[in-house]
Amino acid sequence: MPTPDFIRELRATAGHQLLFLPGASAVVLDEENRVLLGRRADNGRWALPSGIPDPGEQPAETVVREVYEETAVRCVPERIVLVHTAEPVTYPNKDVCQFVDICFRCRAVGGEARVNDEESLEVGWFALDALPELDEYALIRIKRALEDGPTWFDPSVPE
Question: How much is the pLDDT for 157?
Answer without folding.
Answer: 61
